[in-house]
Amino acid sequence: MRLLLVEDDPGIATGLQAALKQAGHAVDCASTLAQAWAVLTCEPFDAVLLDLTLPDGDGLGLLRKIRVRTAGVLHGGNPELPRPDLPVLIMTARDAVPDRITGLDGGADDYLTKPFDVNELLARLRVAMRRAAGRASPLIIHGEVSLNPATRTVEKAGQPVVLGAREFSLLLALMQSPGEVLDRARLEAAVYGFGEELDSNAIEVHIHHLRRKLGDGYIKNVRGVGYFLAREADT
Q: What is the model's pTM?
């Protein structure tokens, strides 16, 4: 998944970014509300991890902007970025009950108080993503392939399939949107953070490896557009 981490403390931001990347996520960082909004309106993200006390205001203001859709006026003319149902997890030192209630009632999917365990953050993130996808099961299943985001494991017909970190992230993006053609930019965003260097054919290489491990027909493509998993009824 591609995450936006909004945190102004350099030490916390660096540590969290490293831990999240270690868990297989692509992570971009913003230290102000203005910076976060600028990134959100031009890049796609799967979730936002939001501090509240920021140099240029309260993170709740950013949360409100994400949750509002007014014919694209607040979205730079593009009502798709950021989408109003984008999962947002607040992480803050504000631990009073009224603060937690205000954050959750304001549209946050979850509310963590600092300090917190990174593994708990990752678990809560997985729950938020399941809820956003309308799933109750921790497993994502498509055809004979099952993927477990918590353990980062994949099986085909009950047999384990060993994937590299970026192959896993790419497969996760495809399995979360069955039937939808994902273009190169969206797949790159799911696998790589902003500014990360990648070869021009990196996505094609990962797709090739996935097809070799999961079967040539599992991932389909629309030439010149992108890649997708056919809905199970169509396979």
A: 0.75
